[in-house]
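4.2 Preliminary Data

To establish feasibility before requesting continued support, the project team ran the inverse folding procedure on a target of 304 residues. The structure was first converted into the token representation described in Section 3, and no sequence information of any kind was made available to the design step. The complete token record follows.
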């Protein structure tokens, strides 16, 4: 009985159940609640305002003080969406962005997964030195790598005359995604949490290193795999700086939105509609797969 009573009043947060019954506990509770409500409103309000503005008329945006559009109907909303989509030919930009995102996904998962497995389980000679280099690259500011990376893309692979130019292709984004050292460390930490007995037993059964990775190790770190896949797709879809630096003729969604700012023929409600359409894929990724996102963070960050 005493044990059950002790478990009942076990603190589950900043304030325990007995503390919440006091005046001081109630004050802190409502103070935290109020602060969280303000943070939620400040985070959600701009998104709601953008969506509401997208369905307003061009004149209503400048003349009306109403937060929501005065007249809203499904036929007019459908017409506005199709007008924004067809006028700017977002089909090409969407296809290019999908290709760029999927390429980054493949390069990051393959390189990070194999790199983490090698550093964790195979451990060839020089592993400590390679691991130190991986950690050191994480500490290097991205501004330092900007010019060398661009010169490498301009004259690939040795940044010297006579190389192949990768500008106006998706290869710079794909190669950059494969060089994500944080993803390598995340997979290494996940593999460190798995017993080496799996690897030894598989080798005794005659399984190759590739078979061990694909049939045994990867299924055991599936939450980390899902987490990295979701994060790279979301980041690739909204990546702006690298495409701006290396792409010229290829149209991707972030660059289409950026270049609309200097186009005076685009109506303001059309511009906001494009912002809404471009935000839908990352939003759906987070809503549908948020369970795997949190699971990947927990497994990748806690060594078993």
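Position-by-position output of the design step:
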């Amino acid at each position: 009985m005493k044990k059950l009573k002790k478990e009942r009043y076990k603190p589950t947060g900043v304030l325990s159940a007995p503390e919440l019954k006091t005046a001081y506990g109630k004050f802190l509770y409502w103070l935290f609640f109020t602060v969280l409500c303000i943070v939620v409103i400040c985070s959600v309000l701009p998104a709601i305002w953008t969506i509401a503005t997208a369905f307003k008329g061009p004149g209503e945006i400048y003349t009306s003080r109403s937060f929501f559009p005065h007249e809203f109907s499904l036929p007019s909303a459908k017409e506005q969406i199709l007008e924004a989509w067809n006028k700017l030919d977002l089909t090409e930009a969407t296809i290019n962005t999908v290709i760029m995102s999927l390429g980054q996904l493949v390069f990051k998962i393959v390189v990070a997964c194999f790199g983490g497995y090698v550093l964790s389980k195979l451990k060839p000679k020089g592993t400590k030195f390679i691991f130190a280099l991986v950690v050191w690259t994480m500490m290097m500011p991205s501004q330092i790598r900007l010019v060398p990376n661009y010169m490498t893309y301009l004259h690939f692979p040795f940044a010297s005359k006579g190389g192949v130019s990768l500008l106006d292709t998706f290869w710079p984004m794909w190669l950059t995604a494969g060089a994500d050292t944080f993803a390598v460390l995340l997979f290494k930490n996940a593999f460190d949490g798995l017993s080496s007995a799996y690897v030894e037993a598989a080798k005794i059964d005659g399984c190759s290193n590739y078979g061990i990775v694909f049939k045994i190790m990867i299924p055991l770190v599936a939450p980390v795999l899902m987490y990295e896949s979701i994060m790279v797709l979301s980041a690739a879809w909204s990546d702006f700086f690298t495409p701006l630096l290396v792409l010229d003729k290829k149209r991707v969604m972030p660059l289409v939105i950026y270049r609309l700012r200097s186009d005076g023929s685009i109506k303001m409600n059309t511009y906001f509609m494009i912002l809404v359409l471009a935000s839908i894929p990352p939003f759906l990724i987070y809503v549908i797969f948020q369970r795997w996102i949190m699971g990947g963070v927990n497994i990748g960050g806690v060594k078993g």
